[in-house]
Write a structure and sequence with these properties.
nine-stranded mixed sheet, 2 domains, 12 helices, about 375 residues, Enolase-like, domain 1, globular, single chain, TIM Barrel, alpha/beta, binds magnesium ion
């Protein structure tokens, strides 16, 4: 079954959230640019994937259309393992992380979507699992920078039924405010996006102990400093650590999986190799006794692919649900949290649903 068309479709959907304007990477976000990857095969079937976009979307689009597509067009879509391996060999010179890898991730997800559609099964069932109907979600709030805003956003999260909340704050004061509003029954995670040098991270983590964090995410700058994470973890046995969203591929997860530094591995399906890459990390997590906390602040096929992984792997306790609301969702209510803060895992063939063509038409950037 030959691949006849590959298209990268950047879609910038305006967002709202409970707080003042903010964003990541030094950019205030008014919209989130998802890079959808649309793959067509000679039988007319269409598969949907997602390659990491947001602030890097223009580079990702170019990587899909100008670098990856010419290599993949005309190839057999049914032997995913062989095709992805071959493409990875061709692309490795141009980055085992970053846009080349994001592009490969988007294609991989679309190929799995196509495989599920051909078989008439959701990806999780295709892979021999899929018995889990729903997965708890946690809301992943943007950085709000002030205790007052954190308090309000946490109160809203509680009203919405979430059993867990993740902050992206970097002060003790904001974490204390969240814990005060959430009480003891709601799990609290803190992601500081590599804000601290190792010594500062240790000092801050010590001060965070009273707030009973489910995990502390990426506490150390730079993200490659696994030894720094290991020192922190061994100095504070009560503080569980999570990391992995900036890891480029399954092989690069190997030292993280083997290290006592981390309790939670965080593969990001749109960044590190799609579903094929995620499967390889999930196996490492199991063999090393780690939990999986997928990085999935997405609303497109990347979220649905992550949900398929949650249907497959009990090591995924919760799914990350980005704490913003899209002006128009890609899949209607599919993939969104319900009144009890859990998400029903879609059981349609492939990744579970196709994006709404009207949303793509309205918000497509190019
Ligand atoms: Mg994170």
């Amino acid at each position: 079954m030959r691949i006849t068309r590959i298209e990268a479709i950047p879609v910038a959907v305006p967002i709202h959230h409970d707080g003042p304007p903010t964003g990541f990477g030094g950019v205030i976000w008014s919209a989130l640019t998802h890079v959808l990857v649309r793959v067509e095969t000679e039988d007319g079937r269409i598969g949907w994937g997602e390659a990491f976009g947001y602030n890097i979307a223009p580079a990702t689009v170019a990587a899909v259309e100008q670098t990856l597509a010419p290599l993949a067009l005309g190839r057999d879509a049914t032997d995913i393992a062989a095709l992805i391996e071959d493409l990875a060999r061709h692309l490795h010179l141009f980055g085992r992380a970053g846009p080349a890898q994001y592009a490969l991730s988007g294609l991989d997800i679309a190929l799995w979507d196509l495989a599920g559609k051909r078989a008439g099964l959701p990806v999780a069932a295709l892979l021999g699992g899929g018995g889990r109907p729903r997965v708890p979600a946690y809301t992943s709030l943007l950085r709000l920078n002030a205790a007052e805003h954190v308090r309000k956003a946490c109160a809203k999260a509680r009203e919405r039924g979430f059993g867990a909340v993740k902050l992206h704050e970097i002060t003790i004061e904001t974490v204390a405010a969240a814990r005060e509003v959430l009480g003891d029954a709601i799990a609290l995670m803190l992601d500081v996006n590599c804000a601290w040098r190792p010594a500062e991270a240790l000092a801050m983590a010590r001060r965070l102990l009273p707030y009973d964090l489910r995990w502390l995410e990426e506490p150390v700058w730079p993200p490659e400093d696994l030894a720094g994470l290991a020192r922190l973890r061994s100095a504070l046995p009560g503080m569980k650590l999570a990391a992995g969203e900036n890891i480029g591929n399954a092989w690069q997860f190997r030292p993280l999986a083997a290290s006592p530094a981390l309790d939670f591995l965080q593969p990001s399906v749109t960044k590190m190799g799609g579903i094929s890459g995620f499967l390889k990390v999930a196996l490492q997590a199991e063999l090393h006794g780690k939990e999986l906390a997928p990085h999935s602040p997405y609303f497109g096929p990347g979220l649905l692919a992550s949900l398929q992984m949650a249907a497959l792997f009990p090591a995924i306790e919760m799914i990350e649900c980005f704490g913003v609301t899209l002006e128009a969702p890609f899949f209607g209510p599919v993939g969104l949290p319900e009144a009890d803060g859990a998400i029903t895992i879609p059981t349609g063939p492939g990744i579970g649903a196709d994006p709404d063509p009207e949303v793509i038409r309205r918000y497509r950037v190019t």
